[in-house]
Amino acid sequence: MATNKGVGRLVGSTGDFYRGSIAATRRNENQENGTSGHTQLHSSSCSSIEVSNCFKSAQWSADGTSLITSSADKILRSFILPPDLLITPDLHTLRPYTTHPLPSPAYALDVYPTYDLSNPNTTLLIASPCSLPIRLLSPFVPGILASYPLINVTTEAYIASHSLLFDTYHGNGSQFFAGSESEVSVFDINRNGEGPLSRMKTIPSRRKKIVGGGVGMKGIISALAMSPDGLLAAGTFGRWLGLYNSGGRGGVAGLLEIGKNSGVSGGAEEGAGITQLLWSSCGRYLCVVERRSDGIGVWDVRNTGRKISWLRGRKANTMQRLGAELVNRQIWAGGMDGAVRMWDGLGMREGIVDPELESNIHDGKLIGDIANWQRLTSGGPSCRVCGGNSSFWDYISDLFWSAPYEWASGRPREPLRRGRWVSGYH
Q1: Which distant-in-sequence residues (6+ apart) come within 8 Å of 98 by Cβ?
Q2: Segment 268-286 mean pLDDT
Q3: 17, 368 in Cβ contact below 8 A?
Q4: Whose CA is closest to 206, among 193, 192, 221?
Q5: C-alpha span between 290 and 298 (Å, rounded)
């Protein structure tokens, strides 16, 4: 099926502010700090070495008013969007409200599920710096609100958490999951300075397969996702997928090795580890996003337990994390060519599925630029894109928002609801 082309309108951008080296970004922010009272100086966190800076990830708040980004300079930035972003025809200049320098790169971050800009008690996020305790932060106030150590009981060294997920099944998000090496831990955000409430091993023994019958999956838990009916999905860089009952507190519901071609041709030979998991609203289908992969696998985990379709043409053959988003039955994803693509009808078609819509965000100007789909306002299908390039010589770093798309097909679309998304690389 032919792919329809679309064109978007740029409504907000960071401009050239972050297009440069880490040292140049530091100079720009320190100069602007004299006129803006919200940006914290972070000279100690940025190296003066002329290495390129770029946005590694971007994640929306639940109310769609804020955006949290992670960059190569090891700084988390919070952007508060202007309320007239999609109303006025002028191009908005975007600057961070608050910055959070980290001593080491952030492996993962997640935003509080009931985030509401008008309620400061809900404006929270968690981040996991490498080899340090998990941190609870605020997009409004610099500094650490709380920390949660995950420690190896044998060596007493900090364990790195490669994935984070607020628990939306039990309670109101007062607990969160942290995925590490062959383990998923549960923390309570109200217990500052304390370790996990529970630790679930994904394999009985990391050294001897014979222990426990060898049932389980071994590897770094790189992605976590909770279904609407409380089925926790955990993916690894080793291309294993585990499903756990009772909101992640129960037993193993199933284990899938996605590297094996199960039920559909295409995609089995691709992929270098799971980076994102997306549940359908009905809790039946699970979309598996991988590094170095040209497509997205769709699995029917409730009935057949097999892969039913392969969404090809993603253009994401890179070790960087490129994010995707699921809106109703539409899957949106960005590629290395600076384009955003959409596959429609999740679960309605089997086999290899080509994208239905495509839009070149950068008009082909930035070769190798990473464009990640981000969204959405309740008033229409507008996108927010986080782009970056980790090349040493090409300093490319941009963050911008595009207004509702006018697709060339002329086919009417239902308004898309607001959602969240995360992407990046290690």
Answers
A1: 38, 39, 40, 77, 78, 138, 139, 140, 141, 142
A2: 86
A3: no
A4: 221
A5: 12
Q: 146 forms bridges with which residues in the sheet?
A: 136
Rounded Cα distance, 399 and 401, in Å = 7
Buried b (16+ CB within 10 A) or exposed e, 279-307: bbeeebbbbbbbbebbbbbbbbbeeeeeb
Nearest-CA neighbor of 180 among 164, 157, 193?
A: 164
- Sign of the alpha-carbon torsion through 171, 172, 175, 177: positive
Least confident of 10-19, 62-71, 72-81: 10-19
> Would you put residue 326 in left (φ > 0), alpha (ψ -120 to 50) or beta?
beta
Neighbours of 366 (CB within 10 A): 17
Residue type, 23: A
Q: How far apart are CA 30 and CA 45, in angstroms?
A: 13
Task: Strands of 167-292 (E only): list them.
Answer: 175-180, 183-188, 198-201, 221-226, 232-236, 240-244, 252-257, 274-279, 285-290
Q: How do residues 301-336 score in pLDDT, each as one tens digit?
A: 887 778 888 998 888 888 888 888 888 888 888 888
pLDDT of residue 115: 92
CA angle 90, 95, 96 (to 5 degrees): 145
| H/E segment holding residue 26 | helix 22-32
**Percent of the chain residues past pLDDT 90, beyond the cut:** 28
List, in sequence order, every beta strand (DSSP E) within 266-322: 274-279, 285-290, 293-300, 306-316
Tell me how far the alpha carbon of residue 48 is from its chain's centroid. 28
The pTM is what?
A: 0.82
Sign for the pseudo-dihedral over CA of 279, 422, 60, 149: positive
Q: What is the pLDDT of residues 345-391, one digit of tens each?
A: 888 888 899 998 887 765 543 323 333 434 434 344 445 555 555 44
pLDDT of residue 8: 62
CB 331 within 8 A of CB 343: yes
- Predicted confidence at residue 396, as pLDDT, reads 37
Whether the CB-CB separation of 73 and 24 falls below 8 Å is answered with no
DSSP 143: S
Rg (CA), the chain: 21
Q: Which two tokens stand for residue 160?
A: 């790195």
Tell me the pLDDT band of 421, cut-offs 50, 70 and 90: very low
C-alpha to C-alpha distance for 385 and 272, rounded to whole angstroms:
24
